[in-house]
Structures are given as structure tokens and as C-alpha cells.
Design goal:
Elements (H helix, E strand, L loop, with lengths): L4 E3 H8 L3 H9 L6 E3 L2 E5 H15 L4 H9 L8 H53 L1
Helix pairs in contact: 3-4, 4-5
């Protein structure tokens, strides 16, 4: 590795991803490593893009959303367009995640109630068996 480039193995170690993941992102035209025969060399730009890809995936953005945001980088020099669009998508994703959390909280409470009911039923049935003995 030089300061400018990293091999696929170094990228995998640095970002905790598999070679398959990197090849997939390359096939989807999200990363553009330098090709030297079979060897791939990832630039600083690729590393920055991979950080954004992984962050976007963690937040639940689709690969297409991530691609669109990355493509906006070159629209204006100050990146206002990219930042504005990222902010809008992030707001929507946050609202979705909060809705999912509320639904999950309700489901957890319902399941706890069902488990408590089941526990009482089992205890009652066991007590009935002992009384019958």
C-alpha cells in the first residue's frame, strides 16, 4: 500500500468488509479502483466513497439512494446540492426508523403480556395437576 492507494486486502481489513463486497460495489459502479491486470488499487477517493456507502447502508439507505448522493458530489463545488439531498433523505429515514421503533416497542409489550399470561396458565395447570395427585 502507498498513502495514495490500498489493495483489496488492505481495504477489507481497514473497513471490515469482504472482497466480495468491494467487487459488488465496483460492479454497481459505486467504487472505481485502478485496475492493474487482476489487481485492484483503491484510491483515497474510493476510501472516502466506501465510508459513505457503509454509513448510508447502516442508516438504511438503498444502494440507489447512495449512488445518487455520491453522484451529486460533482454537481457543485461547495457540495450544497449533495448535502441538501442527503439531509432530506436522512430526515425521511429517521422518521421511518422512529416509526419502526414505535411499532417494535408495541410488539414487545404485547409479547410480554402474552408471556405473562402463558406463565400464569402454566403455573395454574401445574397446580391443578398437583392437587389431583
Amino acid at each position: 500500500m502507498t498513502e495514495e492507494t490500498m489493495t483489496i486486502r488492505e481495504m477489507c481489513e481497514a473497513f471490515d468488509v469482504t472482497p466480495r463486497t468491494l467487487r459488488f460495489y465496483e460492479a454497481k459502479e459505486l467504487l472505481f479502483p485502478i485496475r492493474e491486470g487482476q489487481k485492484r488499487l483503491f484510491t483515497k477517493r474510493d476510501r472516502a466513497r466506501l465510508k459513505l456507502i457503509l454509513r448510508g447502508k447502516r442508516f438504511g439507505f438503498s444502494l440507489e439512494e447512495i449512488r445518487q448522493l455520491l453522484d451529486l458530489y460533482h454537481v457543485d463545488e461547495q457540495r450544497l446540492t449533495q448535502l441538501t439531498k442527503t439531509y432530506e433523505i436522512a430526515q425521511e429515514r429517521l422518521a421511518d426508523m422512529e416509526r419502526q421503533r414505535e411499532e417494535l416497542t408495541e410488539a414487545i409489550e404485547d409479547l410480554k403480556e402474552q408471556l405473562a399470561w402463558g406463565e400464569k396458565m402454566i403455573a395454574s395447570m401445574k397446580a391443578g395437576e398437583k392437587a389431583a395427585e
